[in-house]
Amino acid sequence: MASLTQVSQNKTFEGTLTKYKFTSTSLGGLDTQFNVFLPKESTSAKVPVLYYLAGLTCNEDTGPWKGGFIRDAAAEGIALVFPDTSPRGAGIEGEDADWDFGTGAGFYLDATSEAYSKHYNMYTLITSELPSVLAASTLPLDLSRSSIFGHSMGGHGALTIYLRSLDGKSPYVSASGFSPIANPTLAPWGEKAFKGYLKGGVEEGKAWDATELLKKVKKGTDVKLLVDVGLADNFYTQKQLLPENFSQVLSSSGFAPSVNLHEGYDHSYYFISTFAPSHVKFHAKHLKA
Fold this sequence. Notes:
This protein has helices at 62-66, 69-76, 122-136, 153-165, 188-197, 201-205, 210-215, 234-237, 243-252, 269-287; strands at residues 5-12, 15-24, 30-38, 47-53, 79-83, 141-151, 172-178, 225-230, 259-262. By secondary structure, the protein is α/β, with parallel strands linked by helices.
């Protein structure tokens, strides 16, 4: 099991934000970094965990710096875990050519194409290796009570990770997304990612598409989801996000409506920080039920 090395630590909202790194087998032996916020309650008991997945071009620092999540997590007495968005330093030809593919754009899947399959396994990192590393550490985290949320590509990651886990005993209590790429097989970002990372291209990408995965969830399943999207988001107008498709499947499958569209809000962290309190409270309600 990989051991954690502390990189930095800061006191915030009566708790601590600590950055760690470890050598990841999922990422082909590359080092990866993540941040953990522990509320003051963690000094006397293990606390629930909420993972935040950031979007394209971002890293493990984006969420704690910009999101405003720490204030609300501290108020609720829950921990936050902020992983990176991709491997770093894989040295694959072309991985740094574009801002929306490769470094900073791992898409939270496990790659099957020859060039990327060794290093680009963010799904396994987030769902298996990182929880195992956390469990083996001395951090006071109750990993049996975990939820997940994210923004844009990270919203895609949170929704797909949660929905894929519903096939068995889900380790995730709830999931939510800010401006998620909700139907990537029909979006330019998704098409680019799936053609690059997956041998089977867009067709194989259906296994990593929240809208497609939602179609397979059994009716009557207690699905705990929340999605917020700004109608002034340029990526929404460019048909990169497609929340209406996700919402339509929710409705046709009999699941509770959980997609909220907001006039005037864009794709930025001004939007995210506005709705951060409602997302953290949503997860805290289910994590502490």
